Amino acid sequence: MFTSLPTPTRHAVLLALALLGGCAAVTPPSHIPASQQQLAANPSPAAQAAGIERGQLATDWWQALADPQLTALLQQAMQHNHQRQAVLATVRAARHAADATRREALPQGSLGAQAQRQQLANIEVDPYRQGQPRPPMQQLGIVQQSLSWELDLFGRAGTAAAMAERQADLQAADLRAATLLLQADVVRQYTRWQQARLNRALLLDELDTLQQRHAQLQHRQQAGLADLRDVLAAASASQQTQAELAANDTAAAAAAAALAVLCGDNPLTTPQGARALRLPAVPADTAIVYPDDLLARRPDVARADAQLRVSLGEAVLADRAHLPRLSLNLSAGVMAPFGQLGNADALRYALGPAFSWDWLDAGRRAARRAGADQQRQAAWHQYEQAVLTALQEGESSLRQWQASRTRLTSAEAAAALATRAARYSLTRSRSGLEPQNLALAQHAAALQAQRSELAARAAAIEAYVEVQLALGAWQAAPGSEG
Q1: Contact indicator for 336, 140 with CB cutoff of 8 Å
Q2: Degrees, nearest 5: CA angle 21-23-29
Q3: Which helix (H) or strand (E) holds 349?
Q4: N or C: which end of the chain has fewer CB within 10 A?
Q5: How many C-beta atoms lie closer than 10 Å to residue 2's C-beta?
Q6: What are 147's strand-pairing partners?
């Protein structure tokens, strides 16, 4: 077909056609946009029931907790948490590996030099015993450089580069997941630590109240004014409170140590910058927004999507493994005895294409393709499962948030009523209308109600954290891995 063209032009056309073959590289598209479009037609029942509107989530979701100490600890954890930094380094390594894979399609050159003293055996120069003289020993110098370029005829190199990029995306999804979990763990451990510290003050007050009540009941029992069972019950309540105090101190120490490790600090020290004794604020419902891009924000869905795209690329490579390969090779150098490397007759070179085709593989390609197809099916089901799990966790977290808000409202009302009852009982006791031990019992009940309110408040904060996890709140800044 090209016989009428001049030789240089014919070579240029052949090279252009070979380069155009590289356009056959397969880069599977993301499935997330299509899944997200299907999701848009089915609004979240939990979000609708809670009156939560759709929109864009705030990346710094913890600001709704209105706690500067917590914000400082989160910033410290983002910078110094060793597990997150390890995952970040893994992502960067994957990006560099993808860049190296992409460059595999470019020409490669090498340079070599060798010096040797050579003496051929007699059988090498006179294999048929014809009396040929044995050549003298030679001292040779060899300098050679080579250039090779395998043309991407069927898009194998381009597909492999796309797969390497998806592997890096997979690692980036792991980084997003690790960052979200780190933020959530910092908020949870900080909340538990502060709750335990606040709880300790209430437990000490309650223990003192119960011990006073026990002492008064003992006096009344000795005077015949109280039943022994009431005395024993008061003693049991004091012991139970002491046990709760010990468990509370253990929980406080564990939360403080966990918080220190999350922030990259020594767990034997108190968390730096956390001195004030207060719980974070419980956000209002308006602080929660159901994202329009839920699936794109979820790290597990992004990871499953990247894995699916990698499996599609592997299927393509398995299908094209048997196709021909064509490379262009050039080597040039000099070879001569020492001192004569600059002579014109020392020059040596080779130039030309190399063609290879594995036309017989005894069914290996078909077996690899079948295996790649099954891997693709597995990746597809894992992606679908990740999407369903994301939707389920979003619904569950929103309903749990609503339940925690209801529980907190009831706990606040119960604490207020118990406080009123304790004040009323104290007034009656001071007026001599009822024994003091009854006022002490009411005060202990009020303290227990306050501890229940504190626990409900902490549970609401943790429910808010779960919502942010389920909705994929945190996202890296554009152009940044994290």
Answers
A1: yes
A2: 145
A3: strand 347-356
A4: N
A5: 11
A6: 109, 330
